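Example (one chain per record):
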Amino acid sequence: MNFSRLKTKRLRIDEQTTVADMAGNIRVFISESRLAIGAVLGLLGTYYFFTDRLGGSTFILASIGTFLVLHLWSVHGRGVPLLPMMAVQHLLAYGIPVIMANEALAKYPRYEFSSAGVELLVFQLAMATSWYAFMQIISPCKPVSYTLTILKRGGFQAFRKLGLVLIGFTTIYQIAYTSGGLDPLFNALPQGSYPIFVAIQGAASMCGFFIGALGVGSGDIERSFKIFFWVAFSVQCFVSAASLLLSSTIIYIASVMIGLFWSSGRFPWKYVIVTLAVLSFFNLSKHEMRMQYWDENTGEMKSYSIQNLPTIYTDWVNASMTMMFEPKDETAQERDARQTLADRVNNLSNLLFVIDAIQNGHFDTLNGETYEIIPPLLIPRYFWPEKPRAHEGQVLLNVHFGRQDLHSTYTTYIAWGLLPEAYGNYGPYIGSIVLGIALGIFIAVIERLTQNKAVLSLEGFALFALFLGMATSYEMVASVLVTSVFQSIVSICLAVAPFVDRTVHKREKAA
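Predicted structure:
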């Protein structure tokens, strides 16, 4: 079938809708968009080349790798779009600092930008090559899934009710927790139980918003559901962001974006623009707000409740408005502490840092140490209260390469990203090749083993948790990514497993 001649369409979601159905829509979207994407990247690359933009070579090489990956997957992709997502993620994480002319890049010599660009291109090519090879080797899975029994009784309309329940329950949970109503429960639980509840609540929120977004994107729901969905979404984002940590809010935003995109076949530009604008506004004064509301000894939010939220947000809005319209002279330390949203998406500085540390600072590589600690981290803290931190890989990198001392890592985490971590472990080229091959094989295995699984199934929800975790992993090291995704998948499987039946699907997909 020639996908390039097709148009994306809204999917009618039911118990027979498979991952391959979703993938077909996304393949069409990429096929229809790749010429425009190539033109934009080509024009930007040409402009940066002739204007000698700092980091222009990095942007050009990353763009070439990303375009090749998108083209390859649009022709040969059959399942979950992990490969193009990872390619686009790396283009953004390493290209935005160049586009925004991030000041943090100025301290690195120009020749290191070419090295960074080559590492990105090698990584993209290694990932794409290994993915393609294993897509030919691995056979597609059988069209059998563990589908929720509620679908058999009432179809997607009944399943939509499950989404409503999850959204409603997690919204009530957020409000009750913030108001202190759950404190007696958590105080009575054994040590190590709280992270389990957090993981379950996070997984339930992700799934609820994903189910709801599938309904909104497909157009198969009434207006009252849409109103409830957007109100609950706003409330959860409002409450979770009050801790002045935006990570959980970003997870909710990403869950909805994926659901809207997968079901409608159209990228939700309006939604993304609005949410990015709101995030960018509040991110402006996040540092000032943390100085006011965080405990300076623990580095955590001081006690607050629902009653305090209006005050917190009033102060936050006023601080951001001041930052926008009444700029003040800042010291270098204050400027570094205050980051815009674009400043946060800056893996290029991390890659340049480790390239400079190894090539000019003569630091030794870690030879895989940050990967060796991953298996023990998968043991629940309930069974091992003294287990290392999930960020232990990040800590090893920062302490080894002199970015932090061990004491400072207990109050501040400096992000790295998968590619800088691989470079820090294995050095030039080898790190990029090892990471690219490992990710390519993993993505191909997941894509083949899930392409004929139902979206609304145990496997489908586990796959969604994996996709969401990898989509938001741009600044994570492997240990953080693996443990967070593992917790989400286990939580989803434990919650869903008692309510599923083995189902054979009628619409088997071609290989």
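Caption: Confidence is low (pLDDT under 50) at residues 1-6, 331-338.
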